[in-house]
Write a structure and sequence with these properties.
Elements: H1 4-27, H2 29-35, H3 39-60
């Protein structure tokens, strides 16, 4: 399906991409801690809303 060159290119591309994503994240870590310190509240709220929607959906369709 893929040639050897395509496989090598894919692996090298993925490794390089992951390296630069990690590098960029670590470089911006101070800003992330400053601006996104309460982001877990949004995550909890999303899970609560999805849970309530699921409960409402299942109870109405019985």
């Amino acid at each position: 399906m893929f040639s050897t060159g395509q496989k090598i290119f894919g692996i090298l591309f993925a490794l390089t991409f992951i390296f630069f994503i990690v590098w960029s994240y670590r470089k911006d870590l101070k800003l992330h801690k400053l601006h996104y310190n309460k982001v877990w509240i949004v995550g909890v709220a999303i899970f609560i809303v999805i849970g309530l929607f699921a409960i409402l959906t299942f109870t109405l369709h019985k």
